[in-house]
């Protein structure tokens, strides 16, 4: 099993230890971070989505222009544009990026976040809509004849697209969501199912659930798995843990003042955050070096658990997840630009060499 690394490109410089600065869309910064990931050997970069963020399609197109090899993983939330239009937009992006596009489907786990864009469907209905949405998107990508569709959420008559994805019959579909409803839809549609950084036992449990869901559609062998983490590396283990504590102290002021964190509910309703908080309740460190300090501080505001140690120690921890079936690691740092370069120099080559040795041995 090979290994893939995905980084993260934001529209401006910000993190748990950096208040947003510069313009809301900062092209020089976006270009620099994208190029740092390409230079560092990352396979893709994620372009995230929220109800307040700039348009991801345009950022993705800009990243494609600024790089030559780097893949793009565009987060996309079903329900706000027609699936036939989304299919054409994504296929067009694939052509302009020379076949480097993939889509990360996020149905939405936070009612308040959805309602900021006018979506008042229940959690269960959002995943029912996502299922139907992806049915239509994939059919638009592959149908040679005009087709009709009539479902609970969408009705289409005589649709036929002039644009298909460049790279194959459909773009790679990454899929996020930890609820039972999400896992069921992932089993049907996901090429890559994305987990947040939980303990080895929790990751193994979720992988088994997704494979069971995929088996109902004859897809058990077609789903790969991605894990999201925030590695903190240094030349010695003591230095890495000291850096983690420094990050936590700096983050306290940011979290106390930034609306990105002050608006978060004390008890988040989305299952993914609930699972991360359950890991944090086990202690500051889970397994050997899964650090939950930022998770507890931010009430699990997204990807927030870290592996802490030397590059070799963090690589060894990643390999334990790889043995469970994780083939993709979505990693980003608290100093986004500097950490991307450090990962590319010190971490990615170690993991790739170990995976290559395992593959040769097998």
Question: What is the topology?
Answer:
Blueprint: E1 4-8, E2 13-15, E3 18-21, H1 27-40, E4 44-47, H2 56-66, E5 71-76, H3 83-96, E6 101-106, H4 111-115, H5 123-142, E7 147-150, E8 155-159, E9 173-176, H6 180-189, E10 192-196, H7 200-215, E11 224-229, E12 232-233, H8 237-257, H9 259-262, H10 271-281, E13 285-286, E14 290-291, H11 293-298, E15 306-309, H12 311-324, E16 326-331, H13 336-361
Parallel strand pairs: 1-4, 1-16, 4-5, 5-6, 6-9, 9-10, 10-11, 11-16, 12-15
Antiparallel strand pairs: 2-3, 7-8, 13-14, 14-15
Helix pairs in contact: 1-2, 1-13, 2-3, 3-5, 5-6, 6-7, 12-13
Any overview of this molecule?
This protein has 362 residues and is of the alpha/beta class. The protein is built from 13 helices and 16 strands. The chain has helices spanning 27-40, 56-66, 83-96, 111-115, 123-142, 180-189, 200-215, 237-257, 259-262, 271-281, 293-298, 311-324, 336-361; strands at residues 4-8, 13-15, 18-21, 44-47, 71-76, 101-106, 147-150, 155-159, 173-176, 192-196, 224-229, 232-233, 285-286, 290-291, 306-309, 326-331. The strands form four sheets. Strands 1-4-5-6-9-10-11-16 form an eight-stranded parallel barrel, surrounded by seven helices. It starts with a strand and ends with a helix.
């Amino acid at each position: 099993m090979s290994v893939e690394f995905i980084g993260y490109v934001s529209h401006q410089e910000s993190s748990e230890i950096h208040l947003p600065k510069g313009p809301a869309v900062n092209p020089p910064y976006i270009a620099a971070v994208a190029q740092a990931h390409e230079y560092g050997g990352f396979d893709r970069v994620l372009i995230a989505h929220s109800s307040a963020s700039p348009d991801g399609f345009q950022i993705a197109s800009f990243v494609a222009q600024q790089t030559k090899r780097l893949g793009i993983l565009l987060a996309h939330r079903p329900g706000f544009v027609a699936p036939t239009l989304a299919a054409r937009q994504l296929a067009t992006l694939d052509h302009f990026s020379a076949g480097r596009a993939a889509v990360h489907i996020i149905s939405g786990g936070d009612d308040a976040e959805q309602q900021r864009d006018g979506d008042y469907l229940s959690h269960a209905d959002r995943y029912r809509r996502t299922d139907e949405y992806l049915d239509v998107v994939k059919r638009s990508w592959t149908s040679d004849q005009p087709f009709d569709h009539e479902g609970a959420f969408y009705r289409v008559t005589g649709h036929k697209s002039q644009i298909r994805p460049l790279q194959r019959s459909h773009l790679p579909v990454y899929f996020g969501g930890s609820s039972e409803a999400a896992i069921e839809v992932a089993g049907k549609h996901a090429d890559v199912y994305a987990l947040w950084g939980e303990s080895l036992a929790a990751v193994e449990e979720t992988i088994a659930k997704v494979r069971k869901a995929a088996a109902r559609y004859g897809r058990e062998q077609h789903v790969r798995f991605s894990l999201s983490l925030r590695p903190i590396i240094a030349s010695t283990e003591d230095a890495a843990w000291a850096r983690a504590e420094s990050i936590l102290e700096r983050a306290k002021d940011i979290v106390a003042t930034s609306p990105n964190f002050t608006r978060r509910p004390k008890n988040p309703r989305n299952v993914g955050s609930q699972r991360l908080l359950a890991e944090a309740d086990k202690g500051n460190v889970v397994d050997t070096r899964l650090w939950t300090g930022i998770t507890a501080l931010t009430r699990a505001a997204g990807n927030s658990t870290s592996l802490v140690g030397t590059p070799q120690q963090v690589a060894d921890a990643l390999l334990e997840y790889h043995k469970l079936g994780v083939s993709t690691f979505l990693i980003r740092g608290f100093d986004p630009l500097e950490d991307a370069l450090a990962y590319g120099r010190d971490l990615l080559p170690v993991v790739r060499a170990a995976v290559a040795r395992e593959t040769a041995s097998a």
